[in-house]
Design a protein that fits this description.
- The protein folds into four domains: 5-96 and 198-284, Rossmann fold (3-Layer(aba) Sandwich); 114-192, Orthogonal Bundle (Arc Repressor Mutant, subunit A), CATH 1.10.10; 319-598, Rossmann fold; 616-681, DNA polymerase, domain 1 (Orthogonal Bundle).
- 47% of the residues lie in helices and 10% in strands.
- The protein is built from 27 helices and 16 strands.
- The strands form four sheets. Strands 3-2-6-7-1-8 form a six-stranded parallel β-sheet, with helices on both faces.
- It is globular.
């Protein structure tokens, strides 16, 4: 490698090359989404070693997750540098603390506890508090935030209130006292927790000059990837490692700071040139991921929300314009997205190269159901599938027991009563984000499913609701490993897909209604930017005017203001076939002529309470055929066709494949699988 260092620069663009070859001064690389920042960082290390600017044993490359650290090491090995240290902050700190602690203090570093919940519960008992499991998880978040933000327990009430932090059911003073007792319980047990690793290492270096000097002599070249995610405590540790040294390079994008709630802050990246006046600032602007159309939208959103990132320049071929589509309600939105994904797949995109991104986990059940109905395989990233969540499993079990006592209770009434016994109340929505809020939203989604069932099937009882939920749970897992990714925006960071549906982009959801103040709203804007920049080619952005049929009370997200001028209008009946219609104005009941509002009504082409016009014998034959197919394939019946789709087929009695394809819920894949059999039953 030392014989030919220039070969390491051959594949780099001008800005990446500058980042890889600038030594002798602090360097900050502002790297936009898709610009190859990690490539620039690893090639800088390789070029530095090849030219003698770096000693490989003296390099410490830092990042924030085990996955990212593994990627760093893999890339470095591919460049012929297996000995270079690529670690997380915690991994590097723990290694140093375990090695030097006995020398400095004459004893081993205390063990790192894996029972933080148990310690916190013990601390709560000492204060005569009885937090539930959701509150305990939210309290652990506060423990971590206080430590990484350098907030002492005594200062927590004031600083947490100032930062807009809440734990549902507890005031800030109670949380502050609990944090103090938590530390005492740890000390009694002789253990530290995960966040203490950094605190112990900072203390070790501050109190022992000889240790600090040895560490700095060992790691003379410091590099940090994803620097926009550094916390105050991590920055303090970085400065302790650096000392008076100046040989460091940081890489990041202020527009992709989406973990502020956990203590991450872009302030250190944004003020790098202030702290190091002679620093070299390098901007990576060439986007190798996304089409010019996607990049143009990302740039508009970044500029309108003042995210402080670079203006990206796409290096890719042209692609379709991003679509912004309003939908009548959430059910219609999910149906539209499922159809769009199927169309993308039919056009040659692999399922694994498609994604649906949303703000919170509670948005997933409708999309899980819509994809299941459409026969689209999926996997859930960054969390459990809806029906696998503990609170949902508990709710379904309680609903089943209630149905066993009296199955005839109306679905919505019975569901409300069961959820009330579980402590859920529509009027008592937690005012803070966290696990308590997530539980509340999951149970709210169960009630929404009950209400949707009642709207589609008037008179549905508790037994019908339980059967529906159990069927949905059975079909939750993907049909194959090659599935569409369902993910929160947080879990999607660092990933990319050929085609992305960014859903629920309305006020109250993105940004969240819980977002208060400019800092929290800025975080929501960054999440929107991250979602847009995950798409390589096709991008669909959707929002719904109401949760389900009814008055249109929602407004599109303020983040779409910049997108509106460049976005195509929502589809209308004149421009697209009837099955593509997605707004309440664009489809009317063929019986009474009034607007259709729900997804089920769109499928039927009429309101649920308007008289049906199908042949009962034909409908019964379709149901019997579906039952046989489902049994043969060992799948729920609605994975073949839903009741609403079968009813629509019986009513419209299409004469040919194209007529069958025009019915919502069919699609080309199901047309190929089931079309001949269905048309045969219709006598076509």
């Amino acid at each position: 490698m030392k014989d030919d260092p220039e070969r390491l620069l051959a594949g780099l663009d001008a800005e990446q090359r500058e980042a890889a070859t600038s030594f002798g001064t602090p360097v900050a690389v502002i790297a936009g989404a898709g610009t190859g920042k990690t490539r620039a960082l690893t090639h800088r290390i390789a070029y530095g070693v090849a030219t003698g600017a770096y000693r490989p044993q003296a390099v410490l490359a830092l990042t924030f997750t085990t996955r990212a650290a593994g990627e760093l090491r893999t890339r470095l090995r591919e460049l012929g540098l297996p000995g270079v240290q690529g670690r997380t902050f915690h991994s590097a700190a723990l290694r140093q603390a375990q090695y030097f602690w006995p020398r400095a203090y004459g004893t081993e570093l205390p063990g790192v506890s894996d029972d933080r919940v148990g310690i916190l519960a013990a601390a709560a008992r000492k204060l005569r508090l009885a937090p539930d499991s959701g509150q305990l998880r939210d309290l652990l978040t506060e423990v971590s935030w206080a430590k990484v933000s350098n907030v002492a327990a005594a200062d927590y009430p004031e600083l947490a209130t100032r930062a807009g932090r809440e734990v549902s059911g507890l005031d800030a003073a109670q949380v502050g006292r609990l944090l103090g007792v938590y530390e005492r319980v740890k000390a009694e047990r002789g253990v530290i927790d995960f966040d203490d690793i950094l605190l112990c290492t900072v203390a070790l270096l501050a109190e022992n000059a000889d240790v600090a000097e040895e560490v700095r002599a060992t790691y003379r070249h410091l590099l940090v990837d994803e620097y926009q995610d550094v916390s105050p405590l991590q920055q303090t540790l970085l400065e302790a490692w650096l000392g008076d040294g100046r040989d460091h390079c940081v890489v990041g994008d202020p527009a992709q700071t989406i973990h502020s709630f956990a203590g991450a802050s872009p302030v250190y990246l944004n003020t790098f040139a202030v702290r190091f006046p002679d620093a070299r600032l390098i901007r990576l602007v060439r986007d190798y991921r996304s089409t010019p159309q996607v990049v143009a939208l990302a740039n508009k959103v970044a500029a309108s929300t003042r995210l402080g990132t670079v203006q990206l320049q796409s290096q890719c071929d042209d692609g379709p314009e991003p679509r912004v589509v309003p939908c009548a309600d959430e059910l219609a939105e999910a149906t539209l997205v499922a159809r769009w994904l199927a169309e993308q797949h039919e056009a040659g995109v692999r399922w694994r190269d498609l994604a649906v991104l949303y703000r919170v986990h509670a948005q997933s059940p409708l999309f899980e159901a819509a994809l299941t109905d459409a026969g689209v395989p999926f996997v859930v990233r960054g969390g459990e599938g809806f029906y696998s969540r503990a609170e949902v499993r508990q709710a379904v079990a309680e609903l089943s027991r209630a149905a066993g006592r009296d199955a005839s209770v109306p679905a919505v009434d019975g569901c409300r009563a069961v959820l009330a016994r579980l402590g859920w109340s529509e009027q008592a929505a937690p005012s803070a984000q966290g696990r308590v809020r997530e539980r509340w939203e999951s149970l709210a989604a169960v009630l929404a499913l009950a209400e949707d069932l009642a709207a589609a099937r008037p008179g549905a009882d508790l037994a019908a609701l339980v059967a529906e939920l159990e069927q949905r749970a059975q079909a939750e897992h993907p049909l194959s490993a090659d599935g569409v990714t369902l993910s929160t925006l947080h879990a999607a960071k660092g990933l990319e897909w050929t085609a992305v549906a960014l859903v629920g982009v309305q006020e109250g959801t993105l940004p969240l209604s819980l977002a208060r103040g400019p800092e929290q709203l800025a975080e929501e804007a960054r999440l929107c930017y991250v979602g847009i920049t995950r798409a390589k080619s096709a991008l669909l952005i959707t929002w719904s005017r109401s949760r389900r049929g009814g008055a249109a009370i929602r407004q599109p997200s303020r983040f779409l203001d910049a997108a509106a001028p460049a976005s195509p209008a929502a589809p209308t009946p004149r421009r697209r076939p009837p099955r593509k219609v997605t707004t309440e104005q664009s489809a009317r009941c063929r019986v009474c002529g009034a607007s259709l509002t729900t997804g089920a009504e769109h499928k039927l082409g009429r309101h649920a309470d308007c008289p049906a016009s199908y042949d009962e014998a034909v409908y019964a034959a379709l149901v019997a055929w579906r039952t046989a197919v489902a049994k043969e394939r060992a799948i729920p019946g609605y994975c073949v066709f839903t009741d609403a789709t079968l009813m629509a087929i019986a009513e419209r009695a299409p004469a040919d494949p194209e007529g069958l394809l025009a019915i919502p819920g069919v699609g080309r894949m199901k047309l190929e699988q089931y079309g001949p059999a269905v048309l045969g039953i219709l006598g076509r």
